[in-house]
Amino acid sequence: MLNWVRKINDQFISYYLIVLFFLLWQVAPVIGWANPKFIPPVSKVLEAGWVLVKNGDMYVHIAVSLERVFIGLFISIIIGLPLGFILGGWLPKVAKYFEPFMNLCAQINTMTLLPLFLILFGVGEGGKYSIIFWASFWPILFTTMEGVKQVDPLVIKCAKAMGVNGFSMFFKVFLPGAAMQIFTGIRTGTTMAFMLLIGAEWLGANMGLGWLIRNSEDNWQIPRLYLGILAIAVIGLIINYFLVWLENTLITWRETEPESTN
């Protein structure tokens, strides 16, 4: 019985802090620990969410935001992955010349580039996609390059000795060898995409979770503001868990720790 309870506890222990956080969020404004005008109880936030769910607006905001995130992220993946393989695997000497410039670009805060994206791409969807692309592109590129560089040279030599080259080398050696780093880059890029979603949807948007947050701030609808923030956090967490599951499912050759015999 104790072992069963211990297993259940170990499985859910990471969620205890989340439960405690929401309990504190609910209680603090009620008992006066926080000003309910600025931090409303979580029940008020959920009530605001239920209103938007009933009239259908919440589904529209989520769908629009997910579309923007996925399009920007997709563009960063289809550019970042091939470029990372080329620079990390086939042209490492060229990569050395470009790395300082790429590091410089990656260090530029995306929020400071909002006016530039506004000038170059306008306030339409192109500007929003470009912001999300810029934020998610660099982690994908750098982790792919690093993953390719970490492929065992002995494996590459053995593959060449067996006549593997060109695209076969890519699919049979470099892609499996760098897969874990690639997933890490995509997960990091996804996190960055959701972080910049609010800024992207400030550029002339009239729907989306980022717009919901800004509109709620302008109209002093504080529960809806927290609702938008909470929705972005929950959706980002769900997508991250999905990517972890996908990684564990696809990368069947990852090294695992031996089970304890005690």
UniProtKB/TrEMBL annotation:
Residues 62-247 form the ABC transmembrane type-1 domain. GO terms for cellular component: plasma membrane. Coiled coil: none annotated. GO terms for biological process: transmembrane transport. It comes from the Bacteria. The keyword Kinase does not apply. The chain crosses the membrane at residues 12-34, 69-92, 104-123, 169-186, 192-213, 225-246. Its main location: membrane. InterPro entries: MetI-like (IPR000515), MetI-like_sf (IPR035906). Keywords: Cell membrane, Membrane, Transmembrane, Transmembrane helix, Transport. It holds the Pfam family BPD_transp_1. It is found in: Cell membrane. Gene3D superfamilies: MetI-like. It is a multi-pass membrane protein. Belongs to the binding-protein-dependent transport system permease family. This is Putative aliphatic sulfonates transport permease protein SsuC. It comes from Methylomusa anaerophila. The lineage of its organism: Bacteria, Bacillati, Bacillota, Negativicutes, Selenomonadales.
